[in-house]
C-alpha cells in the first residue's frame, strides 16, 4: 500500500532561485500541454506532448530555458496532466467515486507550486535529499521513512513554505477478528472485589459532583 510522508525543509538562497526556475518550467510545460489539448480535435498522447512541449520546445529561442532544469519533473508534469484528464473523464462517466473532478485548469504563478521527481532524479544522501540540478536539501525528519521512496514532490505553498512529500510503500494494518472481548480471570479474588466496588465508586463521584453544583 502506498502512503505519503511530508517533511518541511529550508532551502538556501541559491536553492530558492533554482526551485523558482524549476517551478516556472514545470508550470509552463503543463500550460503549454493543456493549451495544445484544448486546440486539438483529438487529444495528443503523453509521448506526443512531451516531444512538442519539451524536446522540440528546448530548441526554440522562446523555450530554450527549459534546459536549465532537470528533464524528469518536466516529463512528470505532462504525466500528471494525463492523470488529470483521466480522472476528469472517469468522473464524468461515473467510474470515479467521490466528489466530481473538474476539467484540468491552467496553473498560475501565485498558487501553490510543485515539481515531482521520480527515481533517477533524486536520491537519499545521509540526512539530506539530492535533487537533480537543485542540490542537496535537508528536510526536518519528524519521523523515519518506512521504506525507500519511489518519488518525491517538492512543494512551495502560498505561505512560501517548502515541503518534500515522499511516496513510499507501507505494510497494511491487518484487521483482527471483529468480535473481540476482554477476559478477566474470575479466579483472581482481588479483581472480583475491585469489580464489586465499582457501583459504590460511581455513587461517590455523583455525590461529589452534586456538592460542587450546590
Structural overview:
The protein is 39% helix and 18% strand. The chain is built from five helices and seven strands, in the order βαααββββββαα. With 214 residues, it is α+β, with helices and mostly antiparallel strands. It is globular, with a radius of gyration of 27 Å. Helix 1 (13-39) packs across helix 2, helix 1 (13-39) crosses helix 3 and helix 2 packs antiparallel against helix 3 (71-92).
* Strand fraction: 15-25%
Q: Count the strands?
A: 7
| Percentage of residues in helical conformation | 25-40%
N-to-C series of helices and strands? EHHHEEEEEEHH
Termini separation comes to 57 Å
Shape: globular
Oligomer type = single chain
Mean pLDDT: 86
Instruction: Give the helix tally.
Output: 5
Amino acid at each position: 500500500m502506498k502512503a505519503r510522508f511530508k517533511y518541511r525543509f529550508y532551502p538556501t538562497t541559491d536553492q530558492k532561485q533554482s526551485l523558482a526556475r524549476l517551478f516556472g518550467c514545470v508550470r509552463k510545460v503543463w500550460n503549454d500541454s493543456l493549451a495544445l489539448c484544448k486546440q486539438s480535435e483529438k487529444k495528443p498522447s503523453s509521448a506526443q506532448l512531451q516531444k512538442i512541449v519539451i524536446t522540440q520546445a528546448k530548441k526554440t529561442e522562446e523555450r530554450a530555458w527549459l534546459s536549465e532544469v532537470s528533464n524528469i519533473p518536466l516529463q512528470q508534469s505532462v504525466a500528471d496532466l494525463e492523470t488529470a484528464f483521466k480522472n476528469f473523464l472517469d468522473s464524468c462517466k461515473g467510474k470515479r467515486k467521490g466528489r466530481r473532478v473538474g476539467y484540468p485548469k491552467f496553473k498560475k504563478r501565485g498558487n501553490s507550486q510543485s515539481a515531482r521527481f521520480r527515481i533517477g532524479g533524486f536520491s537519499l544522501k545521509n540526512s539530506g535529499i539530492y535533487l537533480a540540478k537543485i542540490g542537496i536539501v535537508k528536510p526536518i525528519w519528524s519521523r523515519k521513512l518506512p521504506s525507500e521512496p519511489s518519488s518525491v514532490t517538492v512543494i512551495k505553498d502560498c505561505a512560501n513554505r517548502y515541503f518534500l512529500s515522499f511516496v513510499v510503500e507501507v505494510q497494511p494494518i491487518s484487521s483482527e477478528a471483529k468480535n473481540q472481548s476482554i477476559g478477566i480471570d474470575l479466579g483472581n479474588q482481588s479483581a472480583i472485589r475491585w469489580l464489586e466496588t465499582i457501583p459504590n465508586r460511581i455513587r461517590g463521584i455523583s455525590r461529589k459532583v452534586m456538592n460542587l453544583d450546590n
